[in-house]
Design brief:
about 240 residues, mainly alpha, 10 helices, about 0% strand
């Protein structure tokens, strides 16, 4: 094809000059989402039964704690792992169902979407645990800070264990593994309440503090490892 013919074809198919391009782009300018706004949007994608089951567990823990009196905080700490199980299962939903590629359709970074979902559900559960602390402390004659440590430690431990398991197992095996991990932590709490009640004495609070710090560190580390693994997998 000679040069003249190429130039004629290029001229025939040349795109027209855009009119009012700047005004159009200004009118339809993409608005960036803030972190909290993204978390609020992602909260709307969390399945309704997760919110409902979380509230049901909150009510069940209150009911059990009220009927066992002074041991309410101990029994409550054995039930909080199932709250953490809900969070782990929801955050790993796309991985469980092998639909992770759908999250790539979001214009936000995939790690931002997953983290926003974790923040939304995590803050909700934190609010539930904060709501449990005053009545449990009053019924058991405990300090609020001590009661909070009893509730947070198994929750964070289960979250760390569950995220580790979701990185190692996929699909139905991952769901079963997370459920087994939550049941194990719950059983350990129940056995401790019956067989080692001295662990809940005030002089052992320092050990609980160390356990809480270790669980929080492990949960934070698992979050970072999970986000990094997902980004590497799909980059």
């Amino acid at each position: 094809m000679d040069k003249a013919l190429k130039e004629a074809l290029r001229e025939a198919y040349r795109a027209p000059t855009p009119e009012r391009k700047a005004a159009f782009l200004k009118q339809h300018r993409r608005r960036e989402l803030g972190r909290w706004e993204l978390a609020a949007i992602q909260a709307g994608y969390i399945r309704w039964w997760v919110w409902g089951t979380s509230l049901s567990l909150f009510g069940a823990i209150l009911w059990v704690a009220y009927h066992v009196g002074g041991m309410g905080a101990w029994y409550a700490s054995a039930l909080t792992p199932f709250l953490a199980l809900l969070a782990v299962v929801e955050n790993g939903r796309s991985r469980f169902y092998q639909m992770e590629e759908l999250e790539l359709a979001c214009r936000m970074g995939r790690h931002s979407v997953v983290l926003a979902r974790m923040v939304a559900l995590g803050l909700f559960h934190l609010a539930l645990l904060a709501g449990l602390t005053p009545p449990l402390a009053a019924w058991g004659g405990l300090a609020a800070a001590r009661t909070g440590v009893y509730l947070l430690t198994p929750y964070l431990l289960t979250a760390a264990l569950g995220m580790e398991l979701t990185r190692r197992f996929r699909g139905r095996e991952g769901l079963l593994a997370c459920g087994g991990g939550a049941a194990l932590v719950s059983a350990m709490g129940t056995m401790a309440a019956y067989q080692r009640p001295e662990l809940y004495q005030p002089e052992r609070l320092s050990l609980w503090g160390l356990a809480l710090a270790a669980s929080a560190f492990a949960a934070g580390l698992e979050i970072m490892l999970s986000l990094k693994e997902r980004e590497l997998q799909w980059n």
